[in-house]
Amino acid sequence: RHARDPNDFVVVIANFTPVVREGYRLGVPELGYYRELFNTDAAVYGGSNSGNAGGLMAEPVPWMGRP
């Protein structure tokens, strides 16, 4: 993918199982708020309506080689 600003990025997280993963930690490129853009587990798509309340704030805990 190419962006106008090479520092822009998108984090894609996919769970291809029917199991909800509560509390699953992921490493992200930088601290800040990560907005949920699309959730196929939403009720409108027939899912369990589990989600992240629209997004999550990254915590300052190094994980998976990320800050």
What labels describe this entry?
67 residues, little secondary structure, Immunoglobulin-like, two-stranded antiparallel sheet
Give the helices and strands as they follow along the chain: EE
CATH topology: Immunoglobulin-like
End-to-end Cα distance, whole Å, is: 23 Å
**Can you tell me the number of structural domains?**
1
State the name of the first-level CATH class. Mainly Beta
Portion of residues within helices = under 10%
The name of the CATH superfamily reads Golgi alpha-mannosidase II
Strand content: 5-15%
- The parts where pLDDT drops under 50 for at least 5 residues are none
- Which CATH-level-2 architecture? Sandwich
Outline the biggest β-sheet. Answer: 2 strands, antiparallel
Rg result: 14 Å
Structural features, described:
It is globular and about 35 Å long. With about 70 residues, it is mostly loops. The chain is built from no helices and two strands. The chain has one domain: Golgi alpha-mannosidase II (Immunoglobulin-like), CATH 2.60.40. Strands 1-2 form a two-stranded antiparallel sheet. The mean pLDDT is about 90.
Provide a concise account of the structure shown.
The chain has 67 residues and is low in regular secondary structure.
How does the SSE layout of this entry go?
Blueprint: E1 33-35, E2 55-57
